[in-house]
Each structure stands twice: as C-alpha cells, then as structure tokens.
Write a structure and sequence with these properties.
heterodimer; A: alpha/beta; five-stranded parallel β-sheet; 6 strands; 30% helix; globular; B: 152 residues; alpha+beta; Alpha-Beta Plaits; rod-shaped
Chain lengths: 193, 152
C-alpha cells in the first residue's frame, strides 16, 4: 500500500481520534510494555487523539504484537473481522513484522501479514517508544518514510562479466522470493558460509 | 474559589511540561543504541561470519557462480543483537542509532549485496582473496586460463 494512499485514506476515514485495540498473539511482553510506555505522560500519544479501548468493536486501529502462534490464528482472524471497517492494522516488533527468530518454527506462523493484511510495520526488538510514535505519525501522514530496499554490488571487472557470460550461458539464477532460511544447496543457512 | 483556581494555574505553570515534542522535534538516540543495520559493501569480503552467528538467520548466502556471491539480508526479522557487528573482522557492518524504521512495506527492510569472490582451483567454489591485489591476480589468472582453452 502506498504512503500517499494511506494519507488520503486517513484524512477521509480517520478525521477524528484514533481508538486502538491492542492484542498480543504470542509476544514476550517486551513490545506490550513499550506500547504501554507510549501511553504515559512522557511520550503522551494522546496528543494525536489515540486511546486504548477495551473492545475491538470500538476500535479503528488494531495493534498486533507477537509472531502468530498456531492457536491464535483463528482468534486473530475473528478479531480482524470484529473491527469495523475502515480499519488500520499496525504490526509492532520484529515478531509481528517478520517472525523474529521463530519465523520457521513448527508452532508459529511467522508474521502477522500471513494471516491478516497489515498497513504499518514497526520493526525493532522491541521498538523504542519513539519508534512506535514515528510509526503512528507515519500512519497519520505527519512524517515521511525513511527506509528503502538497498541493492549494492562490488565493482565487478568487465573481463569477469565476459567470462561469466561464456561460462554460464545456460544457468539462470533464480533467487527464492520468500525467505525460508535455506540457501540453494538445501542447507540451513550459515552451514555453507 | 477564584483564588484557588488562580493558585492552581500558577502551580501548573511552575511545574512545566514533561511531554516530549517528538515527532515535531528530532530526538537522537542514546549513544550505544543498536538500531538500523548498515553494510559497507566496499569493505565486505563475503566471508559469511555474520550469517554464522545471526540468531534470527536473516542473512542468507548464495553462490550464483564461481565468481559471484550474493548475500541477502532480511532485516524485517532482525533482532538488533549486534552479533554481526562484533564478529565482522573487516569493520563493514555497523548498527547505527537510527530507529525510525517504520514502513508500509516489508520489502523496504531488505539489503542485497553482490560480491566479487575468488575461485578455488581444486573445488571450484568461491573463496576470499585476502587483499585487493590478490583479487586482481586471481582475475588475471582465470582470464588467461580461459583464453588458453583449458578446463575450468
């Protein structure tokens, strides 16, 4: 989802205060403590009209922390359906964003976006309270996005590229799209390094 | 009644405000805070030490040819432990104080590096030439061998 779209969407749909419902789908409580920290007078996210509510039916925003454990998949789907539309989903912490160190564990789905669509990702283990406020401000359209994908390369000599063309004409290089923790040899990553 | 209200206002004024102005004012992180992972590709030699110690296994290594090694870093599941910075012998990895990493797309937290490696003559796999001069010699050697038509 593009940033400009979120800004337009927000100004139309969430013109007033955002009420958030906070749910934990298997987090270690580190991110939950940071979420509570954000609500204290020092950080005071109520400046933006953000308020915790006790029921998903009152909420505009769903805060999710934790890698989704297998027993929590259906409750999380029901929770998402219980929030009235239009709604925003914010994934807080490395677990909710990408699964953290449990991304390929048998009892963990690994990432909220494999179960429900996510609008804002806030990585960090746990994220600083300022990082959470930055994510909220990004959703409100107050600050620009700062990160982007990086593809870097050594300076590869031309002669080597010529040799490569002769050497490997028939070996297409297909990198796996989804990170599954394994490299091309089928080994667990790190073994062949 | 009115006097007490005025006294309350004065007390409130004297106490001041403790609330941060962030995000309307910048707030740098504390020294030593481990935030975003940055890689200097010119210094990186592709040894894979960071991939060995990464607890979240977010560093994946693929050799696509005898010369080229591709390192992909999925920093969405990075836990910012700093082990990669500790083990990097070439000072290529750093965790700086940047914490404003929130994004609308997971793919924004992705680094791909294409590294130029030497090739072992016996096993045909990538290895690390210790210095740039050695790297140049390896390239020349490979090229001559190829022009002579010998097996590679």
């Amino acid at each position: 989802m593009k940033e400009g779209f979120i800004r337009k969407f927000h100004s139309k749909a969430f013109g007033r205060s955002l009420w958030v419902f906070h749910t934990n789908v298997g987090a270690c409580n580190g991110c939950d403590i940071e979420v509570l920290d954000v609500l204290t007078p020092f950080f005071d996210v109520e400046r933006f009209g953000i308020k915790l509510v006790g029921s998903p039916r009152h909420a505009d925003v769903l805060l999710v922390t934790g890698p989704v454990t297998r027993p929590m998949v259906e409750p999380l789907k029901r929770l998402y359906e219980a929030v009235p539309s239009p709604k925003l989903v914010v994934a807080i912490g490395a677990c909710a964003v990408g699964g953290c160190v449990w991304f390929d564990t048998y009892n963990v789905i690994g990432g909220v976006d494999k179960v429900i669509p996510v609008d804002i990702y806030i990585p960090g283990c746990p994220p600083k309270p300022e990082a959470i406020i930055y994510g909220v401000a990004l959703a409100l359209g107050l600050v620009p996005k700062k990160v982007g994908p990086a593809i870097e390369s050594h300076e590869i000599p031309m002669e080597v590229e010529d040799i490569l063309k002769e050497l490997t004409p028939s070996r297409p290089v297909a990198l796996p799209v989804n990170p599954d923790g394994k490299n091309d040899n089928g080994k667990q990553d790190g073994e062949g390094a | 009644m009115i006097a007490s209200k005025i006294r309350q206002i004065l007390i409130g004024k004297r106490a001041g405000s403790v609330t941060l102005k962030y995000p309307f004012e910048p707030r740098p992180s504390e020294p030593g805070y481990r935030g975003r992972v940055t890689v200097d590709t010119d210094k990186c030699v592709g040894c894979g030490g960071c991939a060995d110690v990464c607890p979240a296994r977010c560093i994946l290594i693929t050799d696509v040819s005898p010369f080229i090694r591709i390192i992909r870093r999925y920093l969405d599941r990075c836990i910012h432990c700093g082990r990669c910075e500790e083990v990097c012998a070439y000072d290529a990895l750093h965790l700086d104080g940047e914490y404003e990493l929130a994004t609308t797309d997971r793919k924004d937290l992705f680094i791909e590096q294409k590294l130029f490696m030497g090739t072992c003559n016996r096993c045909g796999r990538c290895y690390i030439p210790p210095t740039p001069l050695d790297r140049l010699m390896v390239v020349g050697f490979r090229k001559d061998e190829d022009l002579d038509g010998e097996t590679i």
